[in-house]
Amino acid sequence: MDKYNERLVKGKPDAKDLALVIASALVVLVGIYLIIFVTFSFGVLVLALGVFCVGSTFGNLSVEYEYTLTNGDIDIAKIIAMKKRKAIGSIKLGDILCMDKADSNKVTHDIQEGADTILRNYTQNDPEASYYAIYTGENNKKIISIFDFDEKCVEHMKFYLKTKSLV
């Protein structure tokens, strides 16, 4: 019988999405400026374009990550604006080197080392939260994936990782 667990957590929006919202807001301000100081009709067009762009990009600031754990394998999906779901990664149980708390000395040291480490953060970066790091590796590089696991997810992973779990 398969062991299955699922977790949905808030995430942090990409810098690109934040930049698009700011650029859209600037178009709105330019439209207002054009209405007041230059030409009304062209200003209304620019303002309408800006409002449309803000409306279509603002939802992208709502980001969630969905972790699906099946027999120790982890599938990661990114959900944007509660509409678009995109699979962004998968970690197979056999590829996992170890699991540790993300604030442990080992993880902190490995992240600061940097040169041979790739960091993938699937969390909101809340300093108060307790996150977990999953180590994998490819081509002599360590890949550290940070997750916001609840107790059920931690127990699930400990069951399959056995001695590889440092938690």
Topology:
Layout: E1 4-10, H1 15-38, H2 40-58, E2 63-70, E3 73-80, E4 84-91, E5 98-101, H3 105-113, E6 117-121, E7 132-138, E8 141-147, H4 151-161
Parallel strand pairs: 6-8
Antiparallel strand pairs: 1-2, 2-3, 3-4, 5-7, 7-8
Helix pairs in contact: 1-2
Structure description:
- By secondary structure, the protein is an alpha+beta fold.
- The protein has a domain at 15-60.
- Helices cover 38% and strands 32% of the residues.
- The protein is built from four helices and eight strands; from the N terminus they run E-H-H-E-E-E-E-H-E-E-E-H.
- The protein has helices at 15-38, 40-58, 105-113, 151-161; strands at residues 4-10, 63-70, 73-80, 84-91, 98-101, 117-121, 132-138, 141-147.
- The strands form two sheets. Strands 1-2-3-4 form a four-stranded antiparallel beta sheet, covered by helices on one side. Strands 5-7-8-6 form a four-stranded mixed beta sheet, sandwiched between helices.
- Helix 1 packs antiparallel against helix 2 (40-58).
- The radius of gyration is 21 Å and the shape is elongated.
- The chain starts with a strand and ends in a 6-residue tail after the last helix.
